[in-house]
Fold each of these.
Amino acid sequence: MDLFDLKGKTAVVIGGSSTLGGAMAEALAAYGAKVALTGRKVENADPIRKRIESAGGEARCYAVEATSKADLEKLLREVAAWTGGVDILLNCPGVNSAKPFFDIEEEEWDRIMDVNAKSVMLACQVFGKHMVERGLGGSIINLSSVSSAPPLSRVFAYSASKAAVNNMTQFLAREFAPARVRVNAILPGFFPAEQNRAILSEERVASIMGHTPMKRFGDPAELQGAVVYLASERASGYVTGSMLRVDGGFGAMTI
C-alpha cells in the first residue's frame, strides 16, 4: 500500500503561481493528483504547469482573484467539469509588508488581511462546502507562517493575518470532521520568496539565522513532503486541526 498515492484525486492550489505554492503543487502532481493552478495572472502559473506536464502529471491554469467568492465559485465549476470534483484544497496566497506599526495605513491593512485571511475563508466556504456535500471526504491545507504565534517584529499585519489562518484552520477542522474533511496548516519558517525580499535586510537575515537552529533558509522543495502527507488520507487520515511546522527548528528556539 502506497501511503502517499494521490491518483484519482484533484487538487486546487490557490496561489499556485507563487514560489512555495508552485513547489507544493508539483509535489501533489508527482504523486498522481490532477492540479488546478490559480493566480491573478494566469500566465504566471504556466511555467509550473509545464514542469508538471513534462514530469508526466496533469495540470491546468486558471486566472482567479482569490478574494472574490464569485471567481472561486466559477473555478469550482470549471474544475469539477474537468475532473468531476475537488478532493484537496491548498490555500497559499500571500502578501507582506515591513512598515512600522504607526505607519500602517488602513488600505494596506485591508489588502493584507484580504489576501492572506479573507481569501482562505472564502475558499474554505466554496470548496469546503463542495467536499462536505459530496460526501467523499477531503483535505484542506492552509499555508500559515511561523510569524503567526508568536508574531515576528516589523510584520504586524502579516502576523495578524496568519494568526487568523491558524484560528480558521482549527475552527473548520472541528466543523468539517464529521464529513471526513480534514483541515490542517503548514507553518513554514524562512523560505526566501518574492513576497518577503523587502524585509530580508542583512541585519534581519543575521537575526533569523541566530534563531534558526539549522542556520539556513528553507528550500521550497522541503515543503513538498509536508503537503503530500497532509493531502493523503492514507497517510494522515486521523490528522486534523494540526499546525505542522517546517521551520528548521525556529519554533523550538528560545535563548
Amino acid sequence: MTRGEATQSKIHYKGKQDDFLVFVDDVDTYKKWLNDKSTPLAHFISAFQVFVTHRQGAQGTYDSASKMALSAEFDTDNTDDVIQKILEKGTLQISEMPERQGPTNDSMNSMRAK
C-alpha cells in the first residue's frame, strides 16, 4: 500500500434525531453476516462503538453516541443491540483516501548524495 493510502468502510444509519455510524473492517464478512447471523460481529468489527455525526450524514465530526441518544433512537442503550440494528438497517459506505504527495522528510535533504 502506498504511503497514506487507506480505505474506510462504515455503516450509516439515518435516525429520526441524528445520524449514527459503525465502522466495519472486513466488508466481505459483513455482507456474509447479513445473510448468516452465525458469524460473530468481532470477525468484521474491531471497535464496538457507535458514533454520532450531529445530523451531518456520514461526514462531519464523529463523536461517541451517548447512552441517552441510543436509548432515544433505538429504545435500548445496549451498544451490542444498537450495533446489530445499525448493521441490519444502515447503508454501507466505502471511502478511499488517496496517497499523500510531497517529500518524505525535508530535514534529510542535506544528506542526499549530489
Amino acid sequence: MNKFKSLLGGVALSVAIATSSLAAGVELNASSTGLALQGYDPVAYFTEGEATKGNWKITATHNDATYRFASEENKAAFEANPDAYLPAYGGYCAFGAAMGFKFDGDPNYWRIVDDRLYLNLSEDIQERWEGDIPGFIEKASANWNEIADKDPAELQQQ
C-alpha cells in the first residue's frame, strides 16, 4: 500500500496543478474555459466504442460545461438524455475517487460498466482499477458523497 500511496502522491501534485475545476462547482472535471472531457465526444464511447475527439463546431452546454461531439447525431443524443452519457464522478479518475482523491480523468483510459462511462488517470491506474472494478466503483461512489464538492487540491492536503 505504501508503494501505491507513493504513486498517488507523486501523481497528485502534478494532477492537482493540471486539473482546473469550474468556478461553478468542483464536482465536474473541466478546463478553466469549461471544456469537459478534454474535448472528447461523450456519446462516441457508447456508439463507436472508442475515445473520439469532438468537433469544436458541434457543441452543447450542460451544467455549465461545454461538450464537443463528432457528429450532429451524437449531439442530439446527448441533448435528449445527457445523464446517459456523462462520465461517472464528474469525469474525474474513477480509481482516484475510490482512494478519496480527484485526479484528472484521461479520456483515453476509459471503460463502460453497466451503461456508465468511467475514466481513469493513466494506463497503469486503469490496469489497477480493472483488478476489482465492482469494488472500486463501490468505494468511489461512497467517497464521492464526501468529495464531490471539494477542490482537488484540498483533498491533497488531507
